[in-house]
Structure formats: C-alpha cells, structure tokens
Amino acid sequence: MTDDITQRIRAIIAEQAMLDPDQITDEATPADLGIDSLGLVESIFAIEEEFDISIPFNANEPEKSEFDISNMGTIIAAVHRLVAEKAG
Amino acid sequence: MSGPVDEALIDAGRAAPAIRPAAEMTGRGGLRRVVITGAGTINALGHDVATTLEAFREGRCGITQLDFRDVDRLSIQIGGQVHDWTPETYFNRQQILLYDKFTQFTLLAAKQAVEQSGLHFQGALGLRSGVILGTAGGGLNTWDENYRAVYEEGKNRVHPFVVPKLMNNAAASHVSMEFGLRGPAFTVATACASSNHAMGLAFQMVRSGAADVMLSGGSEAMLCFGGVKAWEGLRVMSKDACRPFSANRNGMVQGEGAGVFVFEDYEHARARGAEILAEVVGFAMSSDAQDIVMPSAQGAERAITGAMVDAGLNREDIGYINAHGTGTAANDKTECAAVAHAFGHHADRLMMSSTKSMHGHLIGGTGAVELLACIMALRDGVIAPTIGYQEPDPECALDVVPNEAREAKVDAVLSNAFAFGGLNAVIALRRV
Fold first, then answer.
1. HEC states along chain A?
2. Measured between alpha carbons, how far is B380 from B29 in angstroms, rounded to an integer?
3. pLDDT tens digits, residue range B167-222?
4. What ipTM goes with this model?
5. Nearest CB to B251: which of A38, A45, A60?
6. Is the pLDDT of residue B16 over 60?
7. For chain B, what is the mean pLDDT?
C-alpha cells in the first residue's frame, strides 16, 4: 500500500523518528523506530490533524485501545479505516 | 566588617521574621519541632475536613460527570468537581469579582484551619507568621473565561481585575491579607508536587526559626473547558474511573479544591495549650533530571529515603504511605518500585493507599488534601482506602488497602508527590 494516505502517514512518522520515509516499513514497531510513548502521542496527534480524524488512543493501555499500534502496518490500516468512516 | 552590629538593628530583627537564637530551639540538631494545629479543606468529597474524613472512612467516590460550559466538546467528561459551590455564601460581590475559584477555595480552607488553631495574628505573631501555597494552574478559570471573551466572542475589553485574579500568587496574597500574616509569603508551582513542596518549605521555615507559624497547603481549580482539554492532549486520562494500582487502571482523573494547614512551632503551640493534630518531622525533595513526563523510580526513592533521614526515622517506623498513586500505568508501577526498593522487607508490612481514587488528582493542590489522610491515619487510626481496586497488578504488589478503610495504629507516615518535570517531594509526619 503506497497510496496517498500511506505516504502521508509515513512522512509524519519519519519526521517524528528522524528517519527517511522509506525506512518506515510495515513491520517496524514504534520502539524499532525509536519512538517513545510521548513521541507516539505526538505522532497520533499529527495524524489526527493531517486527516481531521479522531483516534481512540489511551497511553495507559495502548494494547487495549481500539487503535492498534503494534506496528506501522496496523497503524496505517487503522488510519485508513478511520478516514473511510469519516468519508461515510 | 564595619564593627559590631547596631543594637537597634538587632531589636528590629527580633521583631521581623529572622533566625532566632539556637538556645530557643528544642528539636533535633538544635532545630525546632513543628506541629500542625489546624486543617481546612474543600474538595469533591466535602466542604470541610470532617466530611472529607468521613468519605475516606466510607471509601466514598467524589468523581462524577463534569458540569461546566462546553463540557460536551470534551472526550474526558468526568472529574472530582466540587459540588454545590456557592461563593456568595462566603464572599461578597466585590470579593467574588476579585477572587478566582482557586483563591476562593484557598480562603475557605484557610479560614477553617485558622479557626481550628485558635490563633490570632494581630501584633507580633503576625510579623513572625507567613504563608506558602502550592498551585499549578493558578487562576486558570480566569484565563479560560477571558480568552473566550477576547478570542471567541471577539470582545476588545476585559475586566480590570483579570491580572490580579489569575496570578499564581493571588491565593497566598489574599490569605496573608485576610489573616494579617506579614512574614514570608509566596507560591510554589511544581505541577503535581506543588503542595508538598510548599508544605515542605513552610516546615523548614518554622523548624529553622525563620517563622513561628506558617499557613501552608495548596489549591487547584482547573476543571474548566481549557483546563481539561489541555490534559486530554496527553492521552493519560481515564474516561471512566481512577483505579490506582489496579491492573485494569486506565489513567488519571482530575479533581479540584484546596487544603490548608497551620504549621506551628511546637513550643509556641504547647505554651498556649493548642490541640496538636500531628507533628511534621521530615521533608525531602529530589529531581529526576531525566524526562519531562516519565517518572524515575530512583528519583522518587531518593525523596522517600531523604524524608525518613531528615525525620530521623527508620524504615520500620513508617506504617502508612499516602501514595502519589495517579492511576496511570507509568506512575503506579514506578512508585511501587521506588517504595519496594526504599523499604526492602518492610515494604511488605506497610500500607500504601491513593485517595485520588476518591477526590481525583488536584494537581497543584493534591498533596494538601492527601495530607488529611495522613493525619487521619495518625490521629484516628483509620487508613483511607484505594477505591476502585479490581485486579491485582504484579508490578504494584504492595498492600494498597483496597476498597475498604482499615483500622490500624500507625506512629509515622509519609506523603508522596511526584510531579511532571521529574520533581519529587515527600513529607514525613508523626503522631504526637
């Protein structure tokens, strides 16, 4: 998936991780990319702003959030869903 | 040096807040002993100390649906809000125009504390008395209302008292004016540790002889649209409940209110036959110097150990700790690790509870309201519970006094506060 949404998410994560967008692979976890909990909250905020969506995410129980942050692939898929839901 | 000190200056110095001769000091290391002779509060559990302690005993929760303008635009809609607050019951029209809610809460709590102490500050005592209070947000409601007026409503004029209302020292200044406290007076802002830092400094001032009586504690009134919206951004807030140390905890819940205490030189209190609620025996502060939001167990442990050393207490002397216990994943496991390491084997024998489960997190005012649970433990032999506790967490494997208050005789207690920015402040109290 290298559609427009995916590219924009990768650009946001890449900026946060100070990496090249090509390095943001689907398998990479936030920790792999050196993104800590505060960095993740910042990235989620940036994605919300970029797509004008609201992401259900609680830093206290990331594994229980409806928003799966296991790796970049799950994050990208979840954002696609939220963007589609918003479009109705 | 320009020769001997002028006699007139020495006389003036005796009247002003200054270090008194060591001969007058009676405590450890030539320092004076410091006792609490008055307490006052308003918070989500009640408008006074008696009602608050009753709620602690009953394990009653004061966290409810929030009620203020634009609350429907918040994703977090619960909090420990002060219920049935009618400022006109306590203040006249002119005072209400001048007092932000955090000042109103403070003045009410201070009045209760001073009344209980029986002190009057006319004359010489006023010169040797002061006030140190903690707050993180100060007049945040005033900021919120006036930003709304100029930005959202497009107004180009604000009330002339906006600045004196919102400034963080407003509450301390009004307390000094209300009671005639003419010695040291200032406000401490160290986020969630503000009240503990304030009370620690007040303790040190009375102990050193810099003042005879200090009013201390703190307040917060951050439950307004902007105040809660800012916290939402961090994504550490719970949408349903504050469940400290429970494996299924999912964040903190904000509260509001104030706690104010009268800290008094022991000999002064004894000479006038005052009722003593507890003795303040130690205080320590430390900085993690590490991360702006993530706490450090080492930094917390240094403050915990430091408070015991300052108090001349051993680990085994401590029977109860009022935890910082915010209900976030990060704080609770870090705090438990710090306590476990600081106390070793004794960690399994002491009790530690978080009353934030009942009144919410009062941010800069929280340590002050929580000190009431410490006083209750020492005086009444009742340990306030951690309510909302549902599932044990192996990372918080201490006796957190789950859900129900417990009777226990304790001789010495600690109160923890660990702030964003890595600033830690721990106070030690003892039964008198």
1. CCCHHHHHHHHHHHHHHCCCHHHCCCCCCCCCCCCCHHHHHHHHHHHHHHHCCCCCCCCCCCCCCCCCCCCHHHHHHHHHHHHHHHHC
2. 30
3. 999 999 999 999 999 999 999 999 999 999 999 999 999 999 999 999 999 999 99
4. 0.82
5. A60
6. no
7. 95
Query: Could B250 and A64 be called an inter-chain contact, meaning their C-beta atoms sit closer than 8 Å?
Result: yes
| CB contacts, 8 Å: B237 with chain A | 58
The token duo for B48 is 């006074």
Rounded Cα–Cα distance for residues B17 and B35 (Å) = 19
For chain A, positions 7-66, list CB contacts with chain B under 8 A: 36-38, 41, 44-45, 54, 57-61, 64
Token pair 């024998």 is found at B349
Chain A hits for B238, CB-CB cut-off 8 Å, are: 58, 60
Chain B residue numbers with beta carbons less than 8 Å from the beta carbon of A60 are: 236, 238, 249-251, 328-330
Residue B159 near residue B219, CB atoms below 8 Å: no
Q: Give yes or no for a contact between B276 and B269, defined as CB atoms under 8 angstroms apart.
A: yes
Q: Would you state the pLDDT for residue B13?
A: 53
Which site among A40, A54, A60 would you substitute to test the B interface, given the most B Cβ atoms closer than 10 Å to its Cβ?
A: A60
pLDDT value for B21: 46
pLDDT exceeds cutoff 50 at B308: yes
How confident is residue A19, by pLDDT bands cut at 50, 70 and 90?
Answer: very high
**pLDDT > 70: percent of chain B:** 94
Contacts of A48 in chain B (CB under 8 A): none
Q: Please spell the DSSP secondary structure of B242-307, one letter per residue.
A: --TT-TT---B-BB-EEEEEEEEEHHHHHHTTPPP-EEEEEEEEEE--S-SSS--HHHHHHHHHHH
The whole-angstrom distance between A70's CA and the closest CA on chain B is 18
DSSP B327: S
Q: What is the pTM of this model?
A: 0.93
**DSSP structural state of residue B190:** -
CA distance B337 to B40: 32
Alpha-carbon gap: A41 to the closest alpha carbon of chain B (Å): 7
